[in-house]
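It is worth pausing here to work through a concrete case rather than discussing structure prediction in the abstract. The textbook approach is simple: state the sequence, then state the predicted structure, then interpret. We follow exactly that order.
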Amino acid sequence: MDRYRILFIIGYDPKSIGGVFISTISIAKGLQALGHQVGILLAPISIPINEFDNPNIRMHFVPYPKGKTAFFTRPFAINKIIRKGKYTHVITVDSYSALQTFYSAILNKLSIIQIIPGGTADIPPINLPGIIVFSEEIYEKIISKYKIQPDYILLSCGQVEFDSFSSKKKTDENSVLGFKEGYKKVLSISRLIGPKITAMMKLLDQVEIASRYYPIHCLLIGDGRDRPKLEQYCNRILKRNGDSLDIEFIGGFRVTSEHLSQADIIVGQGRTVIEGIACHIPSAVCGTNGYYGLLNSDNFSAMTSTNLTGRGLASYSDLVNDLEYLSEYKKNDMDKVYWLSFDRYDVKQGVNKVNALLSTLEPFKLNRFDLLFRYSKTLLQTIMIWVKEKLRKRI
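Step two, the predicted structure:
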């Protein structure tokens, strides 16, 4: 097997580490274990991430340039890292990073892989082979919205290190979340930004209703610029309810199996649900349209096609019924859902697919005018989307 020097370029909001960020780190570790030399370029991060425990992966912490010129100055910082590390392949983890890396890719004749995060595809990928998506939803959207040909896109869902979550560890005092005894323990993990706030509000509505039937203690792990908005919503709920309901924000940090195993039920989207299942904890999907209920063998196909967000599906089920059903679920459904999830989401599957893709991609040997045309078209599309969004916010 050929060995490559691979640089991952990650874009993110430093106050709200998301699932795609963690998934990318897991894939990077898997590629390094196969013998590739791997580096990761990202902005300095203050939140401890246990996935960073691999000393053989080279970390390039480069602050993002500030101001409106950042989009034009960052490519030079990226090119400097690529040349210094003598990287042969680049994997970008958002469309902006792909655009900012394109200059270096052409200049240094590198292969580039684009990972498209989330499910909205608001920014177009560059129309080149080597686009990776995590769900059928985003696969179909990229084809229909941006006219990308299907053979340029790889559906690769493997992103979670099941082995690290499946191993049973004793919870030490530093990992205790503080659930109240005698209460139903509901745990949710999410970035507190944008549409995810709407999904969290839907969850809190369900928690309030469920507290009429059971004492509920709900812990919310996460942070982000819209946290104050959700806190205000939460305070209004707590004011109109008694001691049977308690909701706490406990900040943003990287959860482990020790944290997850303390909950009776985990509620969230995407990677949060997968990690809960990997710990053999009943896990439910709650999205912007409402609460979808526990992931089970009947709804598995529909839910996973939306990247476990429920996007585009009608809401069904409720938290009250799921809490009542927990014992039966653990007995009849938990193992089925675990193995369905393992077959689809275990990181080894994703690493093998990405590794195979690396060997098939040729460095940029296409006509340079064709490459520049494709890049310019994507850049123009991105600028138009940005301008429309700015105008929409002003209106």
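Step three, interpretation. The chain has 14 helices and 13 strands. The first strand starts at residue 5 and ends at 9.
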